[in-house]
Amino acid sequence: MRITILTNKDLASCIVLNRLVPALSDHELSIFLSARVGSQQRQPQQLRELKFFEQDLFNEILFPALASADPARSPELLCFNGIAQLTEQAIVELSDINSGEDYRCFARTNPDLVLSVRFGTILQETVISLPRYGVLNLHSGLLPAYKGVMATFRAMLNEDRQIGTTLHFIDDSSIDCGRIIGRTFLPVDRARSYLWHVLELYKQGCALLLSSIATLDATGSVPCEPQSGDGCYYSFPTQAELTQFADSGLKLLEPEDIVTIARRFMLPGCVGR
After folding, report:
1. Mind listing the pLDDT tens digit for each residue in 13-63?
2. Do residues 111 and 130 lie in contact, with contact meaning Cβ atoms separated by under 8 Å?
3. Which pTM value belongs to this model?
């Protein structure tokens, strides 16, 4: 099956690719990245710091430094260039997948199935209608309650006892509203950071995605159900909400977690573990 993966140029997306790509080695894979999610307007300092650790530290510092490293070292996690070498296909960055040359570049992959995980552009009908099996989106929040960006932040801010992912079809250009295939759940540990929870979510989320792909490949369909209830759509948190988050004893990230993750890109291990 020809599978095209749409994801983002950030740490969580790179770890997701490490989970998906080795497991999908029997399929023909193409990978595209978005460089951003949402508006580029100036954000609160806390979100700029989060962006540095989620994107800039790895994309601009660690990953380029690893590009010249010995390819035989077999790190536990591969950077984007390592993933590209694994698939023997370049990973291409798209600024507007819905039109122009970016759309034509995407369309040339002629996908049977499209996977969307953290992709930063709302897909339009021209993209959605192309793959014969449709577009599957792995959303890092429980739908329909938490639509939009940083759903895990919202659930933690609301003192939910558990968070989760939702695997659903993208049926149209509405956001996080498609038919649901399944959900995964993770208990909230208030001693751990927002970023830690997001990365932990994708362990079960990717397993659900992979099992659904196997079912789709074997039978041509996968059980799903329409969403019930309106839920809420959330954008990036405001300064007041970030202050409330911190005042309740929660953290966006822990430096120790970043060090641990960085080592996984540098030290030998098992790719995709």
Report:
1. 999 999 999 999 999 999 999 976 555 567 899 999 999 999 999 999 999
2. yes
3. 0.94
Domains: count for the chain: 1
Count other Cβ atoms within 10 Å, centred on residue 152.
24
Sign of the dihedral through C-alpha 114, 272, 156, 43: negative
Query: 10 Å Cβ neighbour count for 155?
Result: 22
C-alpha 194: how far from chain center: 15
Cross-strand pairs, 114: 4, 135
Q: Are 129 and 103 in contact (CB under 8 A)?
A: no
Answer yes or no: is 232 within a domain.
Answer: yes
CATH number at residue 33: 3.40.50.170
Q: Do 66 and 265 form a contact (C-beta atoms < 8 A)? A: yes
Provide the greatest CA pair distance for the chain: 52
Asked if residue 272 belongs to a domain, the reply is no
Q: Is 134 left (phi over 0), alpha (psi -120 to 50) or beta?
A: left
